[in-house]
C-alpha cells in the first residue's frame, strides 16, 4: 500500500501539471485521511484519478480512493473523544464520591462483613471485665451479681 506524507505533497512544485498515482494501491484508512483528501482535492493534476484504488484485505472489495468515506473517520474520532471524556468524567466523579464518603463506605463494609444474627453467634461470654486487685471484692460481689442476674443477663 502506498502513502505519501502530507508535508511532501504540500511541497510539490506549483507548476506540476501531471502526477501519476494510478496502479498504486493506496492505504485507505482513517490514519491516511489527509492523503486521501489531497487526492480528492487535486484530481485535476492527477493522471487517471479514477484508477487510484484503495487496497483492502479482500481483493474483491477494492474501491476508488475518491469514493472513500472520510466522514466515517471523523465520526469515529468524535466517538473516541466523547467516550474518552465520558470515561474520565465518570472515574473522576467516582473518585470524588469515594473520597468524600469514605467513612460511610468503610462503615457499610464493616457492617456487611461483620454482622451476624444472634442465632449465628457462638459466644460463651457477653463481656470481659478488667479490674485492679483493689476492686476485686466490689467486682465479684456487686458488679458480677448485678450484671449476671440482671435483665437481660450478661455473662461475664
From TrEMBL:
Residues 123-156 form the TIR domain. GO terms for biological process: defense response to Gram-negative bacterium; detection of lipopolysaccharide; inflammatory response; innate immune response; MyD88-dependent toll-like receptor signaling pathway; toll-like receptor 4 signaling pathway. Keywords: Cell membrane, Immunity, Inflammatory response, Innate immunity, Membrane, Receptor, Signal, Transmembrane, Transmembrane helix. Its main location: membrane. One of its GO terms (molecular function) is lipopolysaccharide immune receptor activity. It is a single-pass type I membrane protein. The keyword Cell membrane applies. GO terms for cellular component: lipopolysaccharide receptor complex; plasma membrane. The keyword Electron transport does not apply. Signal peptide: none annotated. The chain crosses the membrane at residues 79-99. It is found in: Cell membrane. It comes from the Eukaryota. Belongs to the Toll-like receptor family. PANTHER family: TOLL-LIKE RECEPTOR, TOLL-LIKE RECEPTOR 4. This is Toll-like receptor 4. The lineage of its organism: Eukaryota, Metazoa, Chordata, Craniata, Vertebrata.
Amino acid at each position: 500500500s502506498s502513502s505519501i506524507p502530507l508535508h511532501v505533497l504540500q511541497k510539490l512544485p506549483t507548476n506540476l501539471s501531471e502526477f501519476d498515482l494510478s496502479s498504486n494501491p493506496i492505504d485507505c484508512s482513517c490514519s491516511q485521511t489527509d492523503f486521501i483528501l489531497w487526492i480528492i482535492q487535486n484530481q485535476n493534476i492527477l493522471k487517471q484519478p479514477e484508477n487510484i484504488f484503495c487496497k483492502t484485505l479482500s481483493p474483491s472489495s477494492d474501491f476508488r480512493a475518491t469514493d472513500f468515506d472520510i466522514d466515517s473517520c471523523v465520526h469515529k474520532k468524535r466517538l473516541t473523544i466523547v467516550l474518552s471524556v465520558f470515561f474520565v468524567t465518570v472515574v473522576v466523579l467516582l473518585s470524588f464520591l469515594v473520597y468524600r464518603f469514605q467513612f460511610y463506605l468503610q462503615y457499610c463494609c464493616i457492617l456487611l462483613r461483620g454482622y451476624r444474627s444472634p442465632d449465628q453467634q457462638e459466644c460463651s461470654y457477653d463481656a470481659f471485665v478488667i479490674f485492679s486487685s483493689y476492686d476485686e471484692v466490689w467486682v465479684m460481689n456487686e458488679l458480677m451479681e448485678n450484671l449476671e442476674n440482671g435483665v437481660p443477663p450478661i455473662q461475664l
